Amino acid sequence: MLRPKLVAFARLQLRDSAAAEDTVQDTLVTALEKHQSFSGRSAFETWVFGILKNKILERFRHDRRYLSWQDDELSDEDSFENLFKENGRWQAASKPTPWGDPDQVLENAAFWRLLDTCLMVLPDNTAQVFTMRELMGLTTQEICEALTLSDANCWVILHRARLRLRACIEKGWLT
């Protein structure tokens, strides 16, 4: 039952089913070849996901040599100026809507399906940076090195991702 989780994670990160399948296959082969090195200090699944994370980073480094990074254009809806009034308070249309009790929301399977859907509709580059940071747990420095981004650009992309995810979740969760 581990393989479907690995494939889902790889698809989300790589945005290419064939690349995800190949990367998971490489991950599983590596896990089999190196199973002797599994020390048991973490769950086996966590260890295999660590291998997958490294395989995904290897793929990014490889692809970086052949593909140029394309940043998403900044839209008016992503601008701080459009979210807040001059006094620093939220614009009425931009004010976040309460999602309910955070613990209950996080335990709700429908919320996680919605989040997955919202991640899939993010622009590829935005989703890639967001998932590297929030799902893979990489630092911004590691992301910048893997994708050859400036620190400032990385933070802007993360900001855009969070704004778009919030808007998507609010449309799907609260309607």
TrEMBL record:
Pfam families for this protein: Sigma70_r2, Sigma70_r4_2
Keywords, alphabetical: DNA-binding, Sigma factor, Transcription, Transcription regulation
Residues covered by the RNA polymerase sigma-70 region domain: 2-65
Domain of life: Bacteria
Keyword Kinase appears in the UniProt entry: no
Molecular function (Gene Ontology), one example: sigma factor activity
Gene3D superfamilies: 1.10.1740.10, Winged helix-like DNA-binding domain superfamily/Winged helix DNA-binding domain (1.10.10.10)
Span of domain RNA polymerase sigma factor 70 region 4 type: 113-165
InterPro entries to which the protein is assigned, alphabetical: RNA_pol_sigma-24-rel, RNA_pol_sigma-70-like, RNA_pol_sigma-70_dom, RNA_pol_sigma70_r2, RNA_pol_sigma70_r4_t2, RNA_pol_sigma_r2, RNA_pol_sigma_r3/r4-like, WH-like_DNA-bd_sf
GO biological process, any: DNA-templated transcription initiation
Keyword Oxidoreductase in record: no
Family affiliation: Belongs to the sigma-70 factor family. ECF subfamily.
Protein name as annotated: Sigma-70 family RNA polymerase sigma factor
